């Protein structure tokens, strides 16, 4: 005999469903502001270690916060004028010589044999790829050429968002435990202690991840730049920055970064120079894998590299630069939350075994 189950939809169920939909729609409308608030919390949390150190040294909180903001502004200005502007020139020079690279693919001996059909990556025409790359690099160079303030405002979604992030992050960090107080305000009373503790643990994990990845990328970038300068490879700065960025990609990053460098070396210096560049990248890759990574990254265990890359890609796809900025902190908090759930399950199982 088959039992028939009757599903009853009451008026209360409809009302609850409409309330959930209304809340979801309201959150969608204010999603940009929520993203600004989360970004402000992330920035304030990144500055918090400096204020903790200042407190131990009996230094007032406000001067340290102001000093951090001023130092960060000077650092960004220095990076813009001493790194990005030369990099922009490198991009434009690289764009001008893309025709040489394209012709080398067609008429360049070994390269001609490799690409004699002029089709790579599943049948895409090489000239089309060259044009797309040229267009992308030109757009990127034009973007950074607008000036530091205009670039920052566009990165953060507009001038208003940029100013809001500065004001909110300053307000949160200038207060004693400002982030913790803010989280308590927006969290139900029975969960506020756990939420604050969860964020503090996540903050440590985020700091370790950023410290390890940035140091590793910076060291690889410097080594590649010096090595390419010594060999005499054109566009050394662009290739070094590319190597530093690809360093964030686990396992295959170094190989991907070496491909354009070897290609340019072959075009301008032939097989011998290309082999020297290959040897340079192999040496740097060995140094990174056996010395830099164990000393810098593994000792500051944080977010696993593959998880951080997926988080950055998804965050960037959903919300641009701000999405990338908050993606790793959010993933770190989620990882801590999942670890807490698993730990609570283990405790419950052990208590059940003891009672049995």
From TrEMBL:
GO biological process, one term: transmembrane transport
Alphabetical list of InterPro entries matching this protein: AI-2E-like
Keyword Cytoplasm: no
Domain of life: Bacteria
Keywords from the UniProt entry: Cell membrane, Membrane, Transmembrane, Transmembrane helix, Transport
Listed GO CC annotations: plasma membrane
Major location category of this protein: membrane
Lipid bilayer topology: Multi-pass membrane protein
Localization per record: Cell membrane
Transmembrane segments annotated in the record for this chain: 66-88, 148-174, 218-246, 258-284
Family: Belongs to the autoinducer-2 exporter (AI-2E) (TC 2.A.86) family.
Name listed for the protein in its UniProt record: AI-2E family transporter
Species: Candidatus Zambryskibacteria bacterium RIFCSPLOWO2_02_FULL_39_14
Taxonomic lineage of the native organism: Bacteria, Candidatus Zambryskiibacteriota
């Amino acid at each position: 005999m088959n039992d028939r189950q009757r599903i009853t939809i009451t008026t209360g169920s409809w009302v609850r469903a409409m309330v959930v939909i209304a809340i979801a729609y309201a959150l969608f409308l204010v999603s940009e502001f929520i993203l600004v608030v989360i970004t402000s919390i992330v920035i304030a949390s990144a500055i918090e270690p400096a204020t903790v150190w200042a407190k131990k040294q009996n230094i007032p909180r406000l001067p340290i916060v102001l000093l951090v903001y001023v130092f960060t502004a000077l650092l960004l200005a220095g990076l813009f004028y001493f790194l990005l502007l030369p990099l922009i020139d490198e991009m434009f020079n690289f764009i001008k010589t893309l025709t040489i690279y394209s012709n080398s693919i067609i008429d360049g001996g070994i390269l001609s044999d490799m690409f004699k059909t002029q089709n790579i990556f599943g049948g895409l025409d090489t000239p089309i790829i060259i044009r797309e790359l040229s267009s992308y690099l030109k757009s990127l160079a034009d973007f950074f050429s607008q000036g530091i303030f205009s670039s920052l405002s566009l990165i953060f979604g507009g001038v208003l968002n940029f100013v809001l992030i500065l004001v909110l992050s300053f307000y949160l960090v200038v207060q004693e435990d400002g982030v913790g107080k803010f989280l308590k305000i927006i969290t139900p009373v029975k969960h506020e202690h756990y939420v604050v503790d969860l964020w503090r643990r996540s903050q440590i994990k985020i700091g370790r991840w950023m410290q390890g990845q940035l140091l590793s990328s910076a060291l690889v970038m410097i080594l590649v730049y010096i090595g390419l300068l010594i060999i005499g490879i054109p566009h050394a700065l662009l290739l070094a920055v590319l190597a530093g960025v690809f360093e964030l990609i686990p396992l295959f990053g170094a190989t991907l970064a070496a491909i354009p460098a070897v290609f340019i070396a072959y075009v301008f210096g032939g097989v011998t120079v290309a082999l020297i560049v290959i040897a340079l990248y192999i040496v740097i890759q060995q140094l990174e894998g056996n010395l830099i990574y164990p000393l810098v990254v593994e000792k500051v265990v944080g977010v696993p590299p593959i998880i951080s890359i997926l988080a950055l890609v998804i965050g960037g796809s959903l919300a641009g630069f701000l999405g990338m900025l908050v993606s790793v902190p959010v993933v770190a908090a989620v990882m801590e939350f999942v670890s807490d759930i698993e730990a609570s399950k283990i405790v419950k199982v052990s208590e059940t075994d003891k009672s049995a």
